Amino acid sequence: MNKSKVIHLESKERLFGKVRAYIESIELFLEESDKAIPLLLKALNYTDHQLKHEIILLLGNFAKQEVAWPLYQLIIDPGEDEEIRHLASIELSVIFPFLEEPQPLIDHLLEDLKSPDPELRVHAAFALGWEGNTQAAIPLVELLYDADIRVQQTAVNALSNMRDDRILTLLLERLEHGPLEQKRS
């Protein structure tokens, strides 16, 4: 007689318990990062707004390729809460300089700058604004003239985050001659 093996499925309660343990103990997260990162990424699909916020902040502190693409997926999801999309774009801009292979993701974000959706353009622009990302400079400069003022403001912020003296001159000129909303950025 064959005994069938029992497959234990993780309940949501157990999943959330582990997630909470990792959020509350950075030491535990670091010790078990090989297990913790996939679990936290899985939990992003099932959590409420607050827990998702905490997971994104925790994952954003670790520059790993497997974290970058899920953050990107949050950015491009029009059904996702705008605060979560914004937080994902911030965390992505923070980890970008540490990624081993950022180019495919950069290429996607550069394409997203051309989207008809202004929210996506805002989040893509913010994610691309990190020190040393000179390849995004020209597309971000073009966004200074976008029809949506929020996109323009985000482009100013992203260009400022690049910390490139060549861009500083352009931003100063835009500050002098640009719309009031950009001057406030």
From TrEMBL:
Listed transmembrane segments: none
Listed InterPro entries: ARM-like, ARM-type_fold, PBS_lyase_HEAT
UniProt-recorded Gene Ontology molecular function terms: oxidoreductase activity
Cleaved signal peptide residues: none
The protein's name in its UniProt record: HEAT repeat domain-containing protein
Source species: marine sediment metagenome
Organism lineage string: unclassified sequences, metagenomes, ecological metagenomes
